[in-house]
Amino acid sequence: MKPFFRMLLPTLLLLIPTIGCAQEDRTETLRSGGIDRTYTIHLPKDLPPEAPLVIVLHGYGGSADPAAFGMNPTADRHGFAVCYPQGERDGRGTSCWNVGYPFQADMPVDDIRFLDELIGHLHRRYGLSRRNVFCTGMSNGGDMCYLLASRRPELFAALGPVAGFMSVEILRRDDNPHPVPLFEIHGTEDRTTRWEGDLENRDGWGAYLPIPMAVSYWAAKNKCLREQTDTLPAAADGRQVIAHRYTGGTDGREVWLYETVGGTHSWHDTGVDTCEELWRFFSRYVQ
C-alpha cells in the first residue's frame, strides 16, 4: 500500500458508519447552540442501514444512563438504535430539559434545537433513519415529548411520554397543524406528575392539564374517531392497567393512554414492560 493511502485509511474508516458490527454503548459529543452536548448511543449488532432510532430523555435531575431505562435489550430484540441525550443544568444546578417551567424562565438552552440537530447528526454519522425517529421520556423527559409534539412534530413518527404532562402554556400556544401519534403511560397515584393535573400550579412546575384531558387533546388533533377501553391482564405484582386506545385517526394514526391503577411516578412500576409496550406502539409507524 502506498504511503499516502496508509495515512488516509484511518480517516476513511472513521467516516464509515459502524452499523453492522457489534457495538458497546458509546458516549459522544455534539456542539449545539454553542454548547458541547453529550449523548450515549446504543447500536445493536448487525443493525441495517436506515434503522429506526428511539431517543430516550431522562427525568429532572437524571442522567443519560441506559441502565436506568432498560431499553437496550428491547432494541437488541427488535433491531433499532437507542440514543440517550444528556440534559443541561438549570439555575438550580439540576440536569433537565428546558420545557418552560416557571423557574426555567432564564434558562437559555434550546433543547428543541439540540434534539433536531442530534437526529441529523446520528443520521449522517451512523446511517440511521430520518423518517423512523421516535422519542420517549420519563417525567421531565415526558414533558419534553409534549413540547416536541407541539413545536416540532414533523421530526418524529410517534412520541411516548411516561409520567409526563402537557402544560397549559403548550396547549394555548399549539398552532402546529401537523398531528403525531402519542402514547402516554401514567400512574393514577403519581404525586409528582398528578393524574388529575395541576391547573392552579400548586407544585411549582407550571399549570398543566389532567392526563386524560391532555391525551384526549392529541386524540382529537389526530382526528381519531373511536375509543376502545380494555383492562389488561394483571401484572405479576398485581398492578392493573386500563388501556385507552383512540383509533381511526388520519392516515391510521392512533393515540394511547395506559392508566396504571395505583401506579406511582415511575418508569418501571407501570404494570407492563414499559420498553416493550413503547416499541409495540412505535413499530406501528415504521415505514
Quick description:
By secondary structure, this protein is of the alpha/beta class. The protein has helices at 3-15, 71-78, 111-126, 140-151, 168-173, 211-221, 274-282; strands spanning 26-32, 35-42, 53-57, 81-85, 88-89, 95-96, 133-138, 158-162, 182-187, 226-231, 240-247, 255-261.
Describe the structure.
With about 290 residues, the chain is of the alpha/beta class. The protein has a single domain, classed as Rossmann fold (3-Layer(aba) Sandwich), CATH 3.40.50. It has seven helices and twelve strands. The strands form two sheets. The chain has a ten-stranded mixed beta sheet, with helices on both faces. The radius of gyration is 19 Å and the shape is globular. The N and C termini lie far apart (about 45 Å). The N terminus is likely disordered.
